[in-house]
Structures are given as C-alpha cells and as structure tokens.
Amino acid sequence: MYQTEFRAMTTQTKKNPNPAPIELTPTGTWDGNDGQWSTFLLRAGTPEQDFRVLPTWVTSSVILPGSGGCVESDPPDCGPRRGVNPSQGHQSSGFQANWSSTWDSIGIHDVGFKDNLGGATNAAFGRDNIGINGVPPESIILKDQVIELAIPSFMTSLKREGIVPSLSFGYTAGASYASPQTVGSLVLGGFDEGRFTPKNTSAPLDKENLHLLGINISSITTKFEGDAINATEQHVSQDFPANIDSTVTHLWLPVAICHRIQRVFGLSYNEESGFYTIDGNSREKNLRKNTSITIQIGSPNGTSVVNITLPYAALDLQISEPYYKTKTRYFPIRRSQGNFTLGRVFLQSAYVIVDYERGSFSVHQTRVSTTTPQKQIVSIQPPEKTNSTERASETPKKNSVPRSTPAIFAFVLWFFLRRRKLFKTRNSTVEIVVKKPKTTEDVDWEKQMISGKEIYELSGSEDMEIGGTPHAEIDGTPQAEIEGTPMVGIERERESRESHSDEINKAVAAVTLDQVENVYVQSMN
Q1: Nearest-angstrom CA–CA distance, 509 and 511
Q2: In sequence order, which ranges of 267-339 are alpha helices (DSSP H)?
C-alpha cells in the first residue's frame, strides 16, 4: 500500500481572476459489487496509468490498488474489477510504481488503520503526479504532494492557482436505474443546478471536523400506491443525528427502524452477513405498488428541513462475491448502534453542495427526468466577493492545475479482494506495522512492494482465510470480504469506524489484508 501527496503544478502563466468551476469527467462506467456506481477518471504517474474512482469528503487520500493484487486463480478481469483501466497498451492489476518516472518514494509509515483492524497497518508513502479530466493538455495535473507535510491540499491548491473560484463542490452519485441512466456529477468550485430542485435551506459544517456533513433525521416514511388509496407508514419516533457520507454504500440506521422497514418491504435478515435480502415475490409486490422511501432531514439546529425521496428502484440492488457466491437481490439498509449514516444509496436521489469557506452545506432532491439532464453550472464565489454564486459563462474548464491542502476532497478506487487464502486470524490482532527508524529489512520490503513482488509475511499473524468463506474474523468481529466496494479514503472518525464495522472496517480489511503491497494510497492532504 502506498500513500502519496501531490503538489499541483499548472501550465498557466497567469492566474485567472475569474475562474470557472471544474466539472470532473464521468467514466460512463457503472462499477460495484453492492450496487452500480458512477465513477470518475483519474490518472496517476508518468506515463499516466488510468483508474476509475469515486469521490469522498471524509479524507484527503487517493487510494490506488498496487500491482500485486491479481494472481492466476483470479478471474481474467481481475484488473478491471479493481478499477484499473488499460494504460500504455497494457492491462495492469494495479498502480505500477516502477513504471512511473515521476514516482518518488518516501518510505513506509503508519496510515491509521489501527482502529479498524485491531492493530496498526502501514503504507509506502511517495510523491507522484495525478491527473483528472481527459488527457493533456486538457487534463488537470497534480504533482509531488505528501500527506503529512504542511503542503496545501487539492481544493486549496485549485483555488490558489486560480483554477476554481472557491473551496466548494457539488455532487450527486447518479442513478443507474433511471431511463436513460444518469451518470454522477461532480463540480469543483460550484454546482450543477440542472441536476436538482433548489431548496433554500442550509446547515453548518462541524467547526471541529469539516469532513462531517451532520444532519438530523426527523422522519423516514414509506409510501405504497394501492388499488384504491395510497398508504404511508412512519418509521421514526424521535429525531436522531446522522452524517451524509459518500464513502459508504448503505443507509446505516437504528436497529428498531431497520426492523420496521424489514416488515414493510418483506425483507429477510441474514445474521451472518448483516445484509437484508429480498425474495422475488416481495420484490414484485414492491415494484407493483411503486414503493418509495422519503427521508426528512434537517440541520442540527433545527432551522431547516428537506425531504429526499428514494424510489424503490434506487433501493433494488444486487450484491455478489465475496458477500454471496451469486448475484443476490438485497435492500441497502444496515443495522447500526450509533453514528448513523446516509451513504451513496441516499446520494442517488440527493445533491449535496458544500461551501467550506462559509462553513455550510445544503442537500437537495435530484430531478427526475426522462431525458439527459441539461447542465446549468453555477459558480460559488468566495466570501470576499459580493455575490455568493453566479452562472458559469461557459462549459467548466478542463485546463491544467495546482497545488494541494487540508483534507477537503479526495478520490478513492475500487477494491477487488482476491478470493484466495492469504493468512488466517481468529480472535487475534493483525498487526502490520513498520516501526521507525527503517531497518534494512524494511527497505528490502519496500523495494518488493514497488516491484510488485508478492509479500505474505505479516507480523503477529498466521494464515488467514479470506477467500474460502464469505467472512473472516478479526479480533472476534465478523469481517466480510469486499470486491469492488467503492471507497474513497480510509481516514474516518474513530466512532464511525467502530460503528460501521461491517462496511467501513471490512472495506479496510479488504484493502490491508489483500497483501500489503496491493494498495497505493496517494494523498492530496
């Protein structure tokens, strides 16, 4: 695993005093093994290696799979499943550090997976270039950045270099179920008003942690269209706090609410996997009755509310290996004892606008259309300017770029966990850590990681069964395998990591247990 930071360089000779927002280019591909998710194009290294990634706002790291992630026993499309596109006429299984002339290794350091795995884990840090939006000269190139150094982050760099007008963004996950399919939308420095119905509400960002989009959920209502009347059912008896987080897939809700939704939709709960599945009869009934769920959210101070309605099609997902051997219909709610979260499922029907400079964000219902949405890019101006927003006069630009800063925005890649035996641990601590200062052995290990050679030796562990069964245990906590689960960063709040042990933590397990050299973490912090 590698962690890198990127210092952005721009080919511009003069900063633009009135920059327009940047709209990132969707790949047009729908990826995932727990749903179909719209990804964005990211390029790393020199020459560039292409990856399909997802956005997040909870970390500043770019996480790329390493080159040792696929073996002969894996499916032929192992690389593509990991989000790796063909580059330079070759289909790789992950980022090839030794192919990049601009890769500058820093060393192996702890990346803070401690709470997830019951022990520390590490990544090989380094510097390299990152590109977004097409190919040069249109692409935005970020150079030489390092995670824990005092270097400005991705969003701050964009603004400092006059590439975007402000530290802000707008995002919706897209809808694969729509007709026509609607790809995700990600605008830096503004938002696309053509993608949502404006609602004049906003909520403050957490001053202690700008990564958290905290809201209150005041109601969750299901609606059925019957033969004679429309029936609704309320599932919330008392407001409760939650975060909106694109890093996770599902809706993490109180157990009591999950019970009610299970009964209404005819779901079955699998104690072993922690997923709610649905049979053909219940699914057909829900489709026939045009079932939907409306989630009413408000700001923590209770000054504004907005209703976000998810049609049943947004909840009618399929899950596959490593959770289930064959594709299985499931309903994307998960039980949580705390730190409730509205994940990417919610963002299919919600558009989020975040303005870091004003310390606020807003959530809007996405527009339902039978045609491809027309772009209406709006620029968010910084507080020092009179108007907070203005229409972009032309298509969002795609020219070169900047430097980087505090963790404000990042990308993450699809992970594909090989279904094969790596190592085994039952009720024991997995400790994958390299202490400083580096020893000769550490240097040799780092060289192996860069070269793509396989490494199986992890301190304090024996063989762990990952691929043979749907779940592995770490410190006694059931851990599910992950293939293709879109993650955009591992750096999360301690409580959130502990709470979402079946999604966030398992995703982390998939990254770290899938051989240490299989993932490059490239940071924009």
Answers
A1: 5
A2: 280-288, 312-315
Amino acid at position 186, single letter? L
Query: Which of 119, 121, 123 shows the shortest CA–CA distance to 430?
Result: 119
**DSSP 8-state symbol, 205:** P
Closest by CA to 391, choosing from 230, 233, 194, is 194
Task: For residue 413, give the nearest of 466, 512, 485 by alpha carbon.
Answer: 485
Task: Name the nearest CA neighbour of 350 among 213, 196, 216, 184.
Answer: 196
Question: Taking every pair of C-alpha atoms in the chain, what is the biggest distance, in angstroms?
Answer: 76
- Output the six-digit token pair for 282: 């219940």
Residue range(s) of every CATH 2.40.70.10 domain in the chain? 188-391
Q: What is the mean pLDDT of residues 191-207?
A: 90
Residue 74: strand, helix, or coil: coil
Q: CA-CA distance, 167 to 87, in Å (whole number)?
A: 32
Tokens of 326: 């064959």
Q: Give the DSSP letter string of 210-250.
A: TT-EEEEEEEEEEEEE-SSSEEEEE--SS-EEEEE-TTS-S
CATH value of 188-391 in 2.40.70.10, 2.40.30.260, 3.10.150.10, 1.20.1560.10: 2.40.70.10
> What SS3 class is residue 115?
helix
**Between 377 and 33, the higher pLDDT residue:** 377
- Contact call for residues 504 and 384 (beta carbons, < 8 A): no
How far apart (Å, rounded) are the C-alpha atoms in residues 144 and 349? 36
- Chain center to CA of 253: 19
- Whole-number percent of the chain with pLDDT over 70: 61
CA distance 418 to 82: 10
φ and ψ at residue 194, rounded to 5 degrees: -70, -10
333 vs 312: CA distance, rounded Å: 13
Give the containing element (helix H, strand E) for 352.
strand 350-355
Q: Which two tokens stand for residue 483?
A: 């293939």
Q: Strands (DSSP E) along 80-212, which ranges?
A: 104-110, 122-127, 130-132, 140-145, 168-172, 185-188, 190-192, 196-197, 203-204
Neighbours of 353 (CB within 10 A): 25
Other C-beta atoms closer than 10 Å to the C-beta of 465 total: 16
**For residue 255, what are its two tokens?**
């157990």
List the structure tokens of 1.
């695993």
| Lowest mean pLDDT segment, chosen from 94-98, 164-168, 495-499 | 495-499
Question: Which SS3 state, helix, strand or coil, does residue 321 take?
Answer: coil
Which pTM value belongs to this model? 0.73
| Alpha carbon 57 to its chain's center | 8
393-398 contacts, C-beta under 8 A, 24 or more apart:
393/20, 394/20, 395/23, 396/20, 396/21, 396/22, 396/23, 396/187, 396/190, 397/19, 397/20, 397/22, 397/163, 398/22, 398/25, 398/133, 398/134, 398/138, 398/139, 398/140
